[in-house]
């Protein structure tokens, strides 16, 4: 059994039961290993169907949407979403809230679109979510990142617009309730809150399929290719999909997304209270935009970093080092992280403050 407190930003922590079931299936899945079964076998087709169906259940996906498990990660999603959403305007609006948004913008341009950055928080090292901006109606879509994994900010409400919305939800999908009907495309790399690396989830409004105006859209990058083949156009990442399915079963058996959201809120409240009430630390993100998934904070006195690092490492905590573009610390608290791990971290922070007082 894994024994450390994993605050890593991704690949993600998953429930222990899921690791156990996944390892059992590596040895024996109906008499074969899950690693050797054919993706065309009835056994795997059943897994794929359940994995797609569980997404629909977990997020109350309305009729008229297709769920796909593809490869290439969210990073290919940047390009695929732009190509597939290319419409009559050949123009797209992007909200720039950090490193991942910046990469999405680059791929929007690579897809041949005219890109308009309608809002950005780059002026303050992406420590807030822009508000009160306009999304001109002559755009084929607006793209944004719901949760900024690196900078620790999160959209608490989504833009209200008639322009079709495309969202990279890699690091907060299944962490809170959303209204899928507000979006034309949602995509998310599995390894932040869904499953092991190797697959990227797409939830796509069927109306947009086959309507791309992108000249000569490559077969593989056309979402309609995958929809028509029930997400098995070519060999899908069988194991990642299987484990994602197990994790979604676990999520549903534990109250679904609404209960996960409550647990995530309790964890985030606990940690941010500790950051705010501890004189040694300060949060880096604007308070109203703080992410419930990735909490970023720094020491008031930078020179104590090594000492604090040693303390949390000794307590069995891993993955707390902040991304180099923010520095300090980042506590990623994905669905499977137990609140007891956050309690351990808070104790260490308090101990550190007492020691230094
Ligand atoms: C990790 C991450 C990505 C990149 O995902 P890959 O699957 O590695 O390509 C994109 N967007 C966000 C918000 C992320 O957190």
Helix/strand class: alpha/beta
Bound molecules: pyridoxal-5'-phosphate
Q: From the alpha carbons, calculate the radius of gyration and give it in angstroms.
A: 21 Å
Helix content: 25-40%
Characterize the main sheet: 7 strands, mixed
- Assess the beta-strand content as a share of residues: 15-25%
**In the CATH hierarchy, what is the architecture of the largest domain at level 2?**
3-Layer(aba) Sandwich
Describe the secondary structure blueprint for this structure.
Layout: E1 5-6, H1 16-27, H2 42-58, E2 65-70, H3 73-85, E3 91-96, H4 99-110, E4 114-120, E5 141-145, E6 147-148, E7 153-154, E8 165-168, E9 183-189, E10 200-205, H5 223-228, H6 238-253, H7 256-277, E11 281-283, E12 294-299, H8 305-314, E13 317-318, E14 329-332, H9 339-356
Helix pairs in contact: 1-6, 2-6, 3-4, 7-9
The structure holds pyridoxal-5'-phosphate (PLP).
């Amino acid at each position: 059994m894994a024994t450390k407190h994993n605050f890593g930003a991704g690949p993600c922590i998953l429930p222990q039961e899921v690791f156990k079931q996944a390892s059992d299936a590596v040895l024996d899945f109906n008499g074969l290993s899950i690693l050797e079964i054919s993706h065309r076998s009835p056994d795997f087709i059943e897994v794929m169907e359940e994995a797609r169906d569980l997404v629909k259940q977990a997020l109350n996906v309305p009729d008229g949407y297709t769920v796909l498990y593809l490869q290439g990660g969210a990073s290919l999603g940047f390009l695929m979403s732009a190509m597939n959403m290319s419409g009559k305007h050949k123009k797209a609006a992007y909200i720039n809230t950090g490193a991942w948004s910046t990469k999405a913008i680059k791929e929007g341009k690579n897809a041949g679109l005219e890109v308009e950055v309608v809002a950005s928080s780059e002026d303050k090292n992406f420590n807030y979510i822009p508000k009160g901006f306009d999304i001109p109606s002559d755009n084929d879509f607006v793209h944004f990142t719901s949760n900024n994994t690196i900078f620790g900010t999160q959209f608490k409400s989504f833009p209200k617009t008639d322009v079709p919305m495309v969202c990279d939800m890699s690091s907060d999908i299944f962490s809170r309730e959303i209204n899928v009907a507000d979006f034309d495309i949602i995509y998310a790399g599995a390894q932040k809150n869904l499953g092991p690396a190797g697959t990227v989830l797409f939830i796509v409004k069927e109306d947009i399929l086959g309507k791309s105006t992108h000249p000569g859209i490559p077969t593989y990058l056309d979402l309609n290719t995958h929809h028509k083949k029930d997400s098995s156009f070519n060999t899908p990442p069988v194991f990642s999909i299987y484990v994602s399915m197990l994790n979604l079963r676990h999520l549903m058996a534990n109250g679904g997304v609404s209960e996960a959201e409550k647990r995530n809120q309790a964890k985030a409240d606990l940690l941010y209270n500790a950051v705010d009430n501890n004189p040694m630390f300060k949060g880096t993100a604007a308070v109203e935009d703080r992410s419930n998934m990735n909490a970023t904070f720094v020491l008031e006195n930078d020179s104590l970093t090594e000492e604090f690092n040693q303390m949390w490492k000794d307590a069995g905590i891993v993955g707390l080092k902040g991304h180099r573009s923010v520095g300090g610390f980042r506590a990623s608290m994905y669905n499977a992280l137990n609140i007891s791990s956050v309690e351990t971290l808070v104790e260490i922070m308090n101990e550190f403050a007492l020691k230094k007082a």
